[in-house]
User: Fold these one by one.
Assistant:
Number 1:
Amino acid sequence: MHIQSWKATYRGLVPDKFLDEDVYEDRRQQWLNKLPFQTDTQCVQLAYDDTDNQPVGFVVCEYVEAKEKDMVYIDHLHVMPGHWHGRGIGTALLDAACDWSRAKGFHKVYLYVMEQNTQAVRFYDRKGWFHDQTLITHMARDLPVDTRRYTISLDSLHRGTE
């Protein structure tokens, strides 16, 4: 699910060569390093298709004190191609991450979005997230990736009116 969503999302934003590489083992190791999924500092939520009960999306959020004190980091939010628009899956996953963060006593959440991913940028803008002017370029397999940080104050969110 992660690889399919990742490839579909970034096709046209990064070179095809990068996306067409075999990343299965790399992603497998990445997920093994995150096990167990549910801890005091990490949460993984899945979304399922109502018709066939198959997973169609997931969100991973974690508190890493070394990264940002008193903030939860959304490391992944992926929705399967074909389920992106109009079904509320991304919104439900984002809400689940914020709910988990709030329940753990945090007041702020942040994530990074690839600058060229205008679909995601619009999504977070519509949801009331704030681009705090933090821009980071990191290397992904020798490819520079420009990202912008988005944050949201959980105190400003009111369930049912988001």
Number 2:
Amino acid sequence: MIEQLHATGLTCRQIAEAAKLSHSTVHRLATGEARAPAYSTVRQIERLFAAKNFASKEGDR
């Protein structure tokens, strides 16, 4: 999901801010360093992804 968020032009810092996570957490997820992220962390990224994915589909109409 982070890779796809990057594809929308968001940086790790922007993703972290929008998902209310630390930059280091998002960076570790993006690079694969985080082997077993907390459920709450994954959920925050998932919410952001869903919001961005929905917004981009709305823009396509």
Number 3:
Amino acid sequence: MLEDVLERRAAAVEDWFADWFSRYPAVLSTSVDVRSSGYKIAPVDVNFFPAGYNNFGVDARQRAKSAFLEYLSRYLGSKVLIVVESHTRNKKYVDSVIALRDMLGESGFQLEVGVCGIAEDMSVLSSTGATLDVRALVNCGGEVSTTSGFVPDLIILNNDLTSGIPGVLDGIIAQRMIPRLIWAGLTGDVDFVSKKGIDNVASGVEDLISKIGEKFRFYGLNCTPHVFIKADNGTYGMGVIEVYSGEDVLNMNKKNRNKMRKIKENNPVESVVLQEGVPTNEVFCNHAAEPLLYCIGAEPVCYLCRYNATRSKFENLNAPGCGFADVGSGIAEEKRRVWRTVGKLAILAAAVEAEEIESAYLNGGLS
């Protein structure tokens, strides 16, 4: 059993992680979606700009505050600007920003929250009626500040920049920014509405379905393979569908084609990722569920459960109808160890990829 191996080799596993993270430091904050089917456990999504901090329980908030303080102590200065998403009308997202702001503020940092692309400061309401003051930003000779004169020592992005790097953050910035701005140079040639490039997607799906089926037969699993098609620039669960064959792609209905047409901020889907579909055997209140790990640096500080009453164990649960619960205090130690290991592997892989992309960019390999 995987749990037994990880328990026996716990010290060696920790040494291995310590060695790799010393070479490829984890970013400040990540969330990792994990799927456990009984025959396989895998990370299926890593987010460098997570929302959902408002779902943290009391203990998780305390762990997060300590972890933030430890991570950020490597940077000089105590003035922090959090750059957030522009969709501040989403009250649940405002809940998350307020929770993040409060955790950092209670850790001893001076905080302001800013948004790119607004001309003047504004106040927005959370789902509980709390007020969040959001500042307009300016860039004067590479120094980013609020229009009210707050000059941060450090800029923390809680914005995935789906629409690209905004002008106020473009170019050489005087302050440190985390995560660092990295342009991956992603390209594609897919249009699900006009069906441009769909034959290639269907072929890729068929090939992946075949390989998954071979593994199922090898291990004697009586399961039906399926594949998630995900927008390469997808976020917030948008631009995701599941298919069971290449024919499903070729004969996609209008509803699914529209799902794969545009994502957040009306950005078009032009490139996709094909990912093995891993069913979840986790259940919360009789609903299909999946673990969601929040990490500060390389360490998990919160174990959430995402559940959805309207979706099956085969589907994307990050969809309308989903809810969250902090389950950190109720996880068996064996399960926690497995989730933690899988989550840390995902964070490490993301850190390595980010470093390689940045290195390639600096060396002229990306444009």
